[in-house]
């Protein structure tokens, strides 16, 4: 299980143009310095490309069936084409050019990616924006002594707006009250862990002024509406699969560990591949491509509900405990799957597997009058719905030649 959530209750309405314009992104060195990062990032982006290519193919009947099982729609439905859009969005992003400091580099980025485990700084100097950690612990809030943490670099929203003393300007400051930053909460009381999360633009976001009083504002130039992806240490930690208690095996985290040339994954299930770091990265990129915009419920102030003016948001549905892994995805109706990030990310795994000759178990061609044959058909259909895959020699003939052609173009 990898609960990856947005700060939904503090999300804001982003400008609609942000959803369609090509974005820029920044990857922090807390990610690039990790041994698994490059392979995982490359796989995530390849999988986005693989999905886009297969969804754009008129001959890839295996992948159309995959979409049918996950999203309950086929190519004749207009929503089928919309599934492709967030993947194309991700593929259009460009990395921001490097500046003198990491802080200046990230300022214009629409999407910022960190693997810093929400590190909390030891220094109390709120003016230092160039250290490796983002969060400062503040004085506890009386009378309940609530914990408070401020993101001094303002890498992330949500934000609260304050009136600066002696200055007629509003600035934003990221403060969490009552809890630590999410990665710092691991392990959770229920035994789970956060792999990471995405946070969206500030609820009352304003542009940073160039000056605060008579002092230059170091935050000037920050992108007003931005999405921040934070990946926790837990995501990169080696984990063991104890399904076979007598022969526990490391969970697969990077594509190189799949050893395609020497391993046979026929009759394996999809959850065997969901431990890939690339799967979590693509999941978060999908959140960033289509932020799930929320608004305060007019009938129940304090509760937050989807803003229907922005119907294309991709969040974690139907709820944070039921939004992940094949056993939850397979039963989702179209309206739930079409706005659930892990349903899209699962397509990335299936497109990766298709490139290697695997797809969900096919239903054999059997005489419909053969009663035993009908039982076999039903078993195969259930196996596919349960996420079991098979290896087939004709996948390459039916679809992969298009993938090869487009990659060479």
UniProtKB/TrEMBL annotation:
<protein>
    <recommendedName>
        <fullName>Lysine-specific metallo-endopeptidase domain-containing protein</fullName>
    </recommendedName>
</protein>
<keyword id="KW-0732">Signal</keyword>
<dbReference type="InterPro" id="IPR024079">
    <property type="entry name" value="MetalloPept_cat_dom_sf"/>
</dbReference>
<feature type="signal peptide">
    <location>
        <begin position="1"/>
        <end position="22"/>
    </location>
</feature>
<dbReference type="GO" id="GO:0008237">
    <property type="term" value="F:metallopeptidase activity"/>
</dbReference>
